[in-house]
Every structure is written in structure tokens, then in C-alpha cells.
Amino acid sequence: MIRVAAVGDIHMGPESQGLLRPAFETLPDCADLLLLAGDLTRHGTPEEMDVVAREVRDLPVPVVAVLGNHDHHDGQPEKVTGILRDAGVTVLEGEGAVIDCAGTRVGVAGTKGFGGGFVGRSAGEFGEPVMKEFVRTTRRSADALCAALKDLAGRDCAARIALTHFSPVADTLAGEPLEIYPFLGSYLLAEAIDTAGADLAVHGHAHAGSEHGMTAGGVRVRNVAQPVIRRAFNVYQLALGRSGSSSVVRA
Amino acid sequence: MSDSAAPRAGAGTGENVEYRVAHLRDRLAAEELGELGVRAEVRAGAVAVTGTVPSARCRDTLLRVVGEELAGLTVHSDIVVAETARPDRAEEL
User: Which keywords appear in this protein's UniProt record, sorted alphabetically (chain A) (predicted)?
Assistant: First the structure.
């Protein structure tokens, strides 16, 4: 079994220092790694990411993160990524990493992702250049996620996790206004996850959404936005040696 | 039938609760708080402001900005500060 702690959308600012650290210091008692599902800051400034970095530096469990849209707002994603990495965090964007969790190899593939909507109600790669680029941005992110998960499949991982900021499914958006679903996620991310396979998909971004969902292919999805889980983090215990829990019920 | 006291449609008076709420959202996104998913909706003649913010200071700031932008309107607010306790159980998958 691997114990996965996860939270997103912590939106730290100058006055946030120390709010989450006490809970994070208890992680070794209940989790083997911590996933941060983006929107760690409010505006993506180096000063805000410094607060996040101090909150997670030298934790006794590995920390893996993706950035969110807020972390891009100040236009310095490379710089804030560097601040997190200097604090020992593995930051993923369109790539995977194998994390050693007390001797168990856990593969995490991460990308921020982007919007576009869900099957039957999604934006198309058509018309004005800016519209085509919107959809292509999501497609590139999904393609990279798929490639990273496939790569991890060949690296002897006991479990594979997809980590995004935007949602791969509509299930976990329940509670958000339907009109904004296309800005909250894209089915392209779920298609990537189902194509390459994963044991769990974790995302944030949808503050008014709900925690539980599933891709069409049966991969469990969890929205860990802090306003949704109402905790410093949630913990998911993944049984090892089985991929998903799907079965075919015969008549 | 129309209310003779109300501005004539198309008269270009500009003042409108819907747009004031939209401008509130624009201001929240542009200033100190960022776009935190706070919802502001016109309901039965009042404005309902709901959502979760990361700290008590954010809630104070939010309510100050709401008061400035929606001065003169009835506002019902339900803003929650995010909880920072560790979970008391894990979910088995």
C-alpha cells in the first residue's frame, strides 16, 4: 500500500506563513508522499512562492508539484518553479518522475493542463488563431501527460499517478456553474490518462466542485482543492499490485 | 406595462446591478486577492457573495472591497476561511 497525501489551491500569500506547516509536519505518520496540485500562490510572484517553499522545505516525505494558472499570473513560471525546486520539491510540467517512497517506486506524471470542456460540450480547434491556440495548448499538455504516463509504465513503478491542476473530468466539477466548465478542465486530459493508464488522477482548480470522480476508463479522480477537501491535505491509500478496480460483470 | 420611474430601455443610463457585480469580480481578480473563485450573484434583489478564501485577512479584504463596489445594495455574504487541520482518516482506494 502507498499512502498519497494531496492538496491544491492553497493560494499562499505573505500572511499565510506557518498556516499549513504544523499539519505538513505530521505527514510521516499518515503518508508516504505529498502531491501539490497547483495554485500554490495567488499571483505567481516569487515572494508568494517563497512562502510556499518555506512551508514545505525539509519535510520528511517527498513533495511533488505542478503549477496552476495563478502561479503563471505574474509571468514568471520558470522562476517560481526554481524556488520550489530549491526547496526540494519535484516540479513537473509535461513530464514524469519516479519517487522513492520508503523503498516503493511511485511514478507521478504531472502537467498543469488547461481548459476546453468535456465531450459534447467542448471547444474545437477551429476559427480564429487565438481559439485554435487555446485548444492546442490543452492538447499539448494532454499529449505530454500521456507520454509521461507511458514512460512510467516501463520503469517498474508499483503505482502511477496523474497530477494536474485543471480537471480531467466533469464529475469533480459538480457544484460549479455549468457555464464555466470549459474553463475548469478538458476531456483531453482524461483521454490521455485512459490511453496510458494510471492508478489515480489528482487535480485542483475547482473550488466549488466535489472530491470524487472517475474517468470513462475507470481511473479514480480526486479533486483536492483545499476549499473542497476542507483540510490541509487528504490522504488516499492505494493498494499495490493491481491497476484500478475495474471488473466485467457477466450476465 | 412599464414603470414610468424606471429609465427607458436603451436610454444609456449605464447604472445596473448586473454590471456592478461583474465589475466587482474584475476588481477582485485584478487586486490583492486574485481570482479566488468567490461567487457573486444577484438573488431576489440582493447580492449573494459566497466562497472560500485562504485566510481571515483575505476575508476582511474581500468584504471591504465588496462593501466599496456594492455600496447601497443589500449584500448577503457567506465567506469561509479554508481549514488547515490534518485529516482524521484516509480514503482506501
Answer: Hydrolase, Metal-binding
